[in-house]
Amino acid sequence: MRGRGRAKKRSGGVRFFWHFEPNGVGWPVFRQRMNELKDQVEALGPWVTRFSVLGTSYGGYYDALNDDRVSRAVQFFPQCTRILEVGCLEGAHTTILSRMYPYAEIVALDARQSNLDKARFLTSVYGCRRVTFGLEDLETADLAQYGCFDLCVCLGLLYHLVQPSAFIKRVAARCDALWIWTTICDEVSAETVVDGYRGRMYQEGPLDHALSAIRPQSFFPTLGSLVQMLADAGFCDFQVMNMEQTPNGPSLTIACSKRPFRLPGRVGRQPEAMVVC
Ligand SMILES: C[S@@+](CC[C@H](N)C(=O)[O-])C[C@H]1O[C@@H](n2cnc3c(N)ncnc32)[C@H](O)[C@@H]1O
Asked: What pTM, to 2 d.p., does this model score?
């Protein structure tokens, strides 16, 4: 009989996996599996991402599994069958995407093998399916090998690039829509022009951290230049959201699409005209 010995009928309903309760017959197996999991987590460490399995917390300080920057992308672009995630770190956002788009195929890219090893582990622990990881320097990566996508999720990556405009063009050639969270240059700090876009160069910190860039310098465009980059790449509709002041400058979310999107209550002014606070 299917499931025989696995469930026990009790008053109040069927209790599954009762034998994994303390002192149940499966308790030693459960303890052993949890110890193995702990060993695997430690072997892959140190971690930035915090996660929990059956009530036990593992990993670092970054609660990326509860990051609403990802869930808002899902609300904004509810129908996606192929998603590209760039700068996937240790796979927490990949896990959210995989759970929120359970039938979608996800390709997640990062420049650090150590991040990808953790990302593979984390997504497997959370039972994510249809996820492919790739080791790529996104400053130069040829994205054509990964096919076409409905959406590119780009959180915390653009501000690590020296030539964000070239990256955005390569993304636009493969993706219908783009969801960005990044830090930009405010108008008064713009001091240079790169590829025709205004902004400032940013000196990156230590390059040996999981969250960091892989080159010593990056370029932060102004909001107007960022929107111009997106328009030059072929995106025709933009929504700028959640602008806030962060230590390195204003940070914001931008949704953009190659096809016009119309949302209830959308403010109809041009993003360039918005005040950077
Ligand atoms: C600030 S973290 C952001 C991680 C995650 N997307 C988030 O928002 O929490 C930047 C990530 O991009 C990766 N990264 C930085 N520069 C990169 C590059 N040139 N190519 C690919 N990945 C890069 C880092 O390894 C890291 O995982």
From this structure: 0.88
Residues constituting the chain: 277
Nearest Cα residue to atom 2 of ligand 1? 211
Q: Ligand 1 center to residue 211 CA distance, Å?
A: 6
Q: Ligand 1: which of 66, 69, 86, 110 to mutate, most ligand atoms within 8 Å of CB?
A: 110
CA of 138 to the centre of ligand 1 (A): 9
Dist CA 90 CA 69 (whole Å): 16
Nearest to residue 129, comparing CAs of 85, 99, 163, 166? 99
- Residue pLDDT tens, the chain, 277 long: 444 444 444 444 344 455 667 777 778 888 888 999 999 999 999 999 999 998 899 999 999 999 999 999 999 999 999 999 999 999 999 999 999 999 999 999 999 999 999 999 999 999 999 999 999 999 999 999 999 999 999 999 999 999 999 999 999 999 999 999 999 999 999 999 999 999 999 999 999 999 999 999 999 999 999 999 999 999 999 999 999 999 999 999 999 999 887 655 444 444 443 433 3
- Provide the residue ranges of all domains of the chain, joining segments of one domain with +: 67-273
**What fold does the segment set 67-273 form as a domain?**
Rossmann fold (3.40.50)
